[in-house]
Amino acid sequence: xxxxxxxxxxxxxxxxxxxxxxxxxxxxDAESWSQSIGIVDDDTERIERVVAEYGLRQDFDMQDxxxxxxxxxxxxxxxxxxxxxxxxxxxxMRESTMFSWEYVHVSEAAEKAGWNVSDPRSGQSTVTRLLxxxxxxxxxx
Length: 141
Known about the structure:
about 140 residues, alpha/beta, Rossmann fold, 7 helices, about 50% helix, globular
């Protein structure tokens, strides 16, 4: 998913974020080739928690709006030519493409960009992230 032009608006679903081993590293990487980046999903409180937990950049102000309204508004107002939604399900693909977003499944995006993902059926991603957070806190002391 390397797009050196910086002419992309990139949004992730919460389910896609949960599949990423290191969401912070993914966002740092994507910032180099995306003009706008963030999470677009229906659970705005959970988005806020995830953004705070991983220190993620959130360029999209959800303001208790549903995903459909947010996708439509972002596509209409963003100055970029490409709008890419990284998701983890067929339903997310249908929702995003309905509003003219390019849809990329998180596993495909990860493969193209060199990001690490976890098996969604294992609890390893949650445990791995928790351990990384604890290690980071201990190392910062």
